[in-house]
Design a protein that fits this description.
Layout (H helix, E strand, L loop, with lengths): L5 H21 L1 H12 L3 H29 L1 H21 L3 H29 L5 H26 L3 H22 L21 H35 L6 H13 L5 H8 L1 H21 L4 H29 L9 H25 L1 H19 L15
Helix pairs in contact: 1-4, 1-5, 1-6, 1-7, 3-4, 3-5, 3-13, 4-5, 4-7, 5-6, 6-9, 6-12, 8-11, 8-12, 8-13, 8-14, 9-12, 10-11, 11-12, 11-14, 12-13, 13-14
Length: 393
């Protein structure tokens, strides 16, 4: 294991994830109205562009482990942040839907690559007893990017090209730092991937990660209504101003930083308890927005609870996936994170259909009940306990 400062790897990983997940992925929705107006995109075209990062994310997250294990975290980190720089700059200079589609696709690949890269970096450069904490801190980096979205949207919403040039410049700086600071040697570089018994994934391990991914899919479904229709819920009520959505995103981002404690909570109160508690917080956030969309205090409370819950849950899936596949750390986050994306894709049209049929309040309450049911299901699923069983490692 190369000697690296644990604090440096934790901080750098959080910034890398803030770039790839926050700025290259989640911020796009805030700027989409301006992009649509300037490029003359129809709603159908905008929907098509919005779907591209999902497909490219799948490509990135599926190839990320092999790439990281073959070339090492340092070069893979440069590739990841370099692609983010290229994609963000491509969005900034897009004259039409063709280049915009290519650029957001590149951003999606960068997002997919980043989790395996940072997971392997942690396994290569961080002592075992601190890996859960550092991986959770990395995951909470998404909150940094989401929080940045609010001031950027407030001051540069009318100049989306300038905003994306700034994002690209920041990504380029992070790319240089990542190349200089990440471990050179992968955690599995000493042997040929897929041939050593140390690297083969057992049937029990696959079952554990698959069941964990089932829970992650469910979380993606129940959280999708908030990500997609949270601002619409407020706008439909009409009691608050147009800037409320930006304040919501800031609340989600800042509170989501508390999700960095997911690894420590898993160690102190148990993985299943942490999972259940976070889902109850998620259900509460949905319920508050269902009943009180006209109160700024209620909206910000809901946003804070949602940020804590969502970042804690994604952190938990990251840490537990790596623990279940301790012999393949770059592979650990792949299926759970892919499952969250699939769940969000499934949940978004379901939420839209539910809103059309029964309205916002009933739909948000319905998804809140789904989160409670998922919490109960997680309490009995083997994947949240399996890491303590040596047969799973």
């Amino acid at each position: 294991m190369e000697k690296r400062s644990t604090l440096a790897i934790a901080a750098l990983g959080a910034v890398v994830i803030a770039i790839t997940y926050g700025l290259a992925r989640f911020v796009f929705g805030l700027f989409l109205p301006g992009i649509r107006d300037d490029l003359g995109l129809t709603a159908v075209q905008a929907g098509f562009v919005g779907a591209i990062p999902f497909a490219s994310f799948i490509a990135g997250v599926l190839t990320g482990p092999k790439i990281t294990e073959r070339i090492g975290p340092r070069e893979a980190g440069l590739l990841t942040t370099g692609l983010a720089t290229l994609g963000l700059l491509g969005i900034a200079v897009s004259p039409d839907i063709a280049l915009l589609s290519l650029a957001v696709g590149i951003c999606g690949i960068s997002t997919g690559l980043s989790s395996p890269v940072m997971a392997d970096s942690v396994h290569s450069g961080v002592p075992p007893e601190l890996r859960g904490r550092v991986n959770a801190i990395h995951n909470a980096g998404t909150s940094i990017g989401v929080a940045v979205a609010m001031p950027v949207s407030a001051y540069l919403l009318g100049n989306w090209r300038g905003a994306y040039v700034s994002f690209a410049a920041l990504a380029a700086v992070v790319a240089i730092i990542a190349f200089r600071a990440l471990p050179r040697r992968t955690a599995t570089a000493a042997v040929t991937v897929g041939t050593s018994p140390h690297l083969r994934v057992s049937t029990r391990q696959w079952i554990g990660v698959a069941s964990l991914s089932l829970l992650a899919t469910g979380m993606g479904v129940v959280s999708s209504v908030y990500w997609i229709f949270g601002p619409d819920r407020i706008a439909a009520h009409g009691a608050l101003g147009d800037a409320t959505a930006g304040w919501m995103w800031l609340g989600i981002g800042i509170a989501g930083l508390l999700g960095s404690a997911a690894g420590d909570l898993m160690d102190s109160i148990g993985t299943a308890t942490t999972h259940g508690a976070a889902l109850i917080l998620l259900a509460t956030a949905l319920g508050i927005l269902a009943v009180a969309p006209g109160s700024m205090e209620a909206v910000m409370t809901s946003a804070a609870l949602f940020g804590i819950a969502y970042m804690s849950l994604t952190g938990l899936y990251l840490v537990q996936g790596i623990r279940l596949l301790a012999n393949r750390p770059a592979l650990g986050p792949v299926l759970p994170f892919l499952a969250v994306a699939v769940g969000t894709t499934i949940g978004s049209p379901l939420a839209g259909a539910a809103i059309d049929v029964s309205g916002y309040a009933h739909s948000f309450n319905f998804f809140a009940i789904g989160a409670v049911v998922l919490a109960l299901l997680g309490g009995v699923m083997r994947s949240l306990y399996a890491v303590s069983d040596p047969q799973w490692n």
